[in-house]
Amino acid sequence: MMTETPHTHASSTKPLPFGMRLQSAREALGLDSKDAAAQLRLKEEVILMLEKDYISSDLPLTFIRGYLRSYGKLLRIPEHEINLAIEP
């Protein structure tokens, strides 16, 4: 006789918002937001904006995508994750 084990629903768990993913990856690398901004030659406010998943209406979407791609590469996030985050 076989006993059934309860199924865990992995699909019911939501993935982290990409901003949180960026922040946790940055922290895991031991970088603070100022260091990341300096390496990318961006203002620290842009880094914090990306980590909060906030998109400013005064920045073109093309710039936001570029910032996300550059920041993700700096943090060694796999490219497929970055691409999923910047899809329209």
What is this entry, summarized?
The protein has about 90 residues and is mainly α. It has helices at about 20-30, 35-40, 45-50, 60-75, 80-85.
Per-chain topology:
Elements: H1 18-28, H2 33-40, H3 44-51, H4 61-74, H5 79-86
Helix pairs in contact: 2-3, 4-5
What are the key terms here?
88 residues, mainly alpha
Q: How many extended strands?
A: 0
Shape: globular
| Continuous helix count | 5
| Low-pLDDT segments, ≥5 res | 2-12
Q: How far is the N terminus from the C terminus?
A: 50 Å
If you compute it from the alpha carbons, what radius of gyration comes out, rounded to the nearest whole angstrom?
17 Å
As a percent range, the share of helical residues equals: 55-70%
Q: Could you give the order of the helices and strands?
A: HHHHH
Strand content: under 5%
Mean pLDDT: 86
User: What is the SS-derived class?
Assistant: mainly alpha
Largest sheet: none
